[in-house]
Amino acid sequence: MAMTQTRGRALLLTPAALWYAALLLLPLAVVLIFSFGERTPIGGYAPGFTLAQYANLPARMAAFRNTLTLAPVGTLAALLIAYPLAYFLAVRVSVRWKTLLLVLVIVPFWTSILIRSYAWIFLLGGKGLPALLASIGFEDIRLLNSPFAVLVGIVYGYLPLMVFPIYVALEKLDLRLLEAAADLGAPPWRSFVQITLPLSMPGVLTGSMLVFILLMGEFLIPAILGGGKVFFVGNALVDLFLQSRNWPFGSAVAVALVVIMLITVAIYTRVVKRYAAGRDDVAMM
């Protein structure tokens, strides 16, 4: 009986495992092999085994620095904006208006990110916010083609992905816990710190990791709002693979990015496990 169940599970998992291997593991293996190769005189890949591509990674340190700076900062900024919004939608809004407001949060996703990014070019350009600031006495303020413009773009673009995991977690919040805390004399800030925030942490962690992973591979927003002055690793990869055709070096950069993401996911998994264990310990007390 146990053998039959094991074979049944194996048969059910085989299609998914094959798709996983074909669409994820195989491309990663190809990139890893390319990273040890050499660039031909006309570009592309020549077989070989050298660590020269990895030794040359500091040449793209600016792209890694921008990515590893703006991705966490953008994730934190999105979290600080998304949490109050998600709390308002989940706890404070009546059922009558909740669906409408949730749809309004989704509406930006109905438009291409390319169009939305170009809209920010106008808002942050010379005739947008800088002109408005100049009219009240703040002259020569440049917002476009700067890290600030990229940060605004990524927060705006990825905000819904942060809102919904937090909203789902907060929607499960039992409001009677807050009422009991108030009856016991706990001020609102203490109820938030000791009840609301811990119970919403799964949504916070999920939304933060989701946004952070996507930002690490972002290409379009830095290219449009950065104006070629704020490069992410994604921009470096496009340049190496499509323009300079240095496939081995581009593969080494991609492998380095994957390693960084694996380390991040490992840390995230460890934090989640510790948090879950802490909640279980508290529940057993």
Structure notes:
With 285 residues, the protein is mainly α. It has a single domain, classed as MetI-like (MetI-like fold). The chain is 77% helix and 0% strand. The protein contains 12 helices and no strands. Helix 1 packs across helix 12 and helix 11 packs antiparallel against helix 12. The longest helix is centred in the last third of the chain and has 38 residues. The protein is globular and about 75 Å long. The chain starts with a helix and ends with a helix. The model has no long low-confidence stretch (mean pLDDT 87).
* Contiguous helical run count: 12
The tally of strands reads 0
Q: What kind of sheet is the major sheet? A: none
The CATH architecture term is Orthogonal Bundle
CATH class annotation: Mainly Alpha
Helix content: over 70%
Brief characterization of the structure:
This protein has 285 residues and is mainly alpha-helical.
